[in-house]
């Protein structure tokens, strides 16, 4: 698979692939209301990898879900490739997610009855397309699993299943790849393989990646690290900060000022 084959499709806007403008997300009403995101504004530049960290309940997963169009904010704007998601009905939003957004989950979310190749091509088939066999083969080759195309998830290791999930997320060449704890269910060796793969998607193919993680070593692979607390941006660390510095700053947020 060449860089051209896997490069994200160019959008029609010069804006960053993902923008959040004054985004607030509340759950519940009245005294029981919980604010998960509190007037958050962020840009995610093309061809960069951003890690999102923070204490439990800081809003990490809510940020990811709102930014990916899986959940709608209570107020504010989310734009993907220059398109304001608030202006889309559910059908249009589904199409945009399918065509412009890739998502990788901690639990892989592969269909156990399908082979690796069938799992990879599933998003295109759901969209009514008939992917060419060489396209699917190239997607699996890009994650080092060309020889496992006929294996079902139960015949693959956890790390291999996650790589199939990444190939599935990438086959439509999304504008942005969201990853929710992509190494959370993996051992250290498999985690390193998956992180190297994600980093290569950014460096070699210009993919934009936004990753939620609790692992400072995973976050250290990113170009920047966003630290959330109480639904707000508490701090931002540049790439190269190192796992130790990231862990120390995250721990400080856990105990407060």
Task: Give structural notes.
This protein has helices at 3-6, 60-67, 90-100, 116-126, 133-142, 158-170, 188-205, 216-219, 243-255, and strands at 18-27, 34-44, 49-53, 75-80, 83-84, 101-104, 176-180, 208-212, 224-229, 232-238. With 257 residues, the protein is an alpha/beta fold. The protein has a 6-stranded mixed beta sheet with strand order 6-7-8-3-9-10, with helices on both faces.
The CA-CA distance between the termini, in Å, is: 49 Å
What is the N-to-C order of secondary-structure elements (H for helix, E for strand)? Answer: HEEEHEEHEHHHEHEHEEH
Helix content: 25-40%
Structural class designation: alpha/beta
The counted number of beta strands is: 10
Mind telling me the CATH superfamily name?
Answer: P-loop containing nucleotide triphosphate hydrolases
- How many H/I helices? 9
Q: Compute the number of structural domains.
A: 1
Radius of gyration: 18 Å
Q: Report the sheet with the most strands, covering strand number, pairing sense and barrel closure.
A: 6 strands, mixed
Strand order of the largest sheet: 6-7-8-3-9-10
Supply the CATH class. Answer: Alpha Beta
How would you describe the shape? globular
Q: Could you say what the CATH topology is called?
A: Rossmann fold
Entry summary:
By secondary structure, the protein is α/β, with parallel strands linked by helices. The chain has one domain: Rossmann fold (3-Layer(aba) Sandwich), CATH 3.40.50.300.
